[in-house]
Amino acid sequence: MKFNSYASGSTGNLYELTDSHTSIIIECGVSYKELQRLLPKAPSDYDACVFSHHHGDHFNLMTASQLRKRGLLVENGTYFSPARNVGTIQIKSFGVQHDITNHGYIFRGHDGETCVFLIDCFYSPVTFSFSPTIIAIEANYARDLMREGDSINDRLFASHMSIDQCIETLKAWDLSKTREIHLLHLSDDRSDEARFVREVQQATGIPTTAAPSYRRAGR
Q1: 45-to-35, 67, 146 alpha-carbon distances in Å
Q2: Contact indicator for 110, 116 with CB cutoff of 8 Å
Q3: Residue 91 lies in domain
Q4: Can you give the pLDDT at residue 218?
Q5: What DSSP element (H or E) covers 165?
Q6: Mean pLDDT across the chain, nearest whole number?
């Protein structure tokens, strides 16, 4: 199983999960033209697109419509509770705390490898009876990098995961079989990519990368 990040952040999100038989788009928060540019293969070569919630940087209605026209299943977490299979990958959703209804995902491949995907939430009450192979988790901001009195602070506290909460969440999970961690949705001006990666690696001992911020063509 392999997880790839192509766009991450408040301007757009696009990820990919594949095994040897099935390919899934995770989030479709960019235009269809940009999705075509960013993905490594044609959208019609994917089996499904799953998304966490209906905010525009995670779900673009026109993009979703184009994907459906090309035969892809496009669904949010409600569809995947209880678990359903898409090709060789089993998908199960779980609820997380955001400012609208939002879901995280557990993906399980035919070979038993698993990926946990968690984005746009300030807290997840879920623990697992297994050790995920891959973890893709939000690390949006650090409190010491926030500007005092900024009007967006209260919203971030109530809707997004800080680096400290990210690390606390990871420490609550069984990481004995986890081989990689991907940090998602880093804020442009309230995060520090190198620091966040270093802190998570030091806390977990697991190779960690930060997903690239979304930059539209020509920017």
Answers
A1: 13, 10, 41
A2: no
A3: 2-210
A4: 43
A5: helix 163-171
A6: 91
